[in-house]
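re: ur question from yesterday

yeah so i grabbed the chain u mentioned. its 58 aa long if i counted rite. heres the sequnce exactly as i have it in my notes:
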Amino acid sequence: MTKLKIKSGDTVKVIAGDHKGSEGVVQKVLTDKNKAIVEGVNMVKKHTKPVHKIRKNR
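ran it thru and got these structure tokens back, copy pasting raw so excuse formatting
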């Protein structure tokens, strides 16, 4: 098992990938995958259809 030198709550700077140069706070550390979940980095938006209100007198 490898030990990472960062922990939850640390402020880190992304050094590789699409978000290179951005900074954020570590929310979770995944030691088994050697990854850290950083707040505000690699956020994905999911498209949802607009929901219409249902009429009462149908």
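noticed a couple things. The mean pLDDT is 86. also Residues 16 and 22 are 10 Å apart (CA to CA).
anyway ttyl
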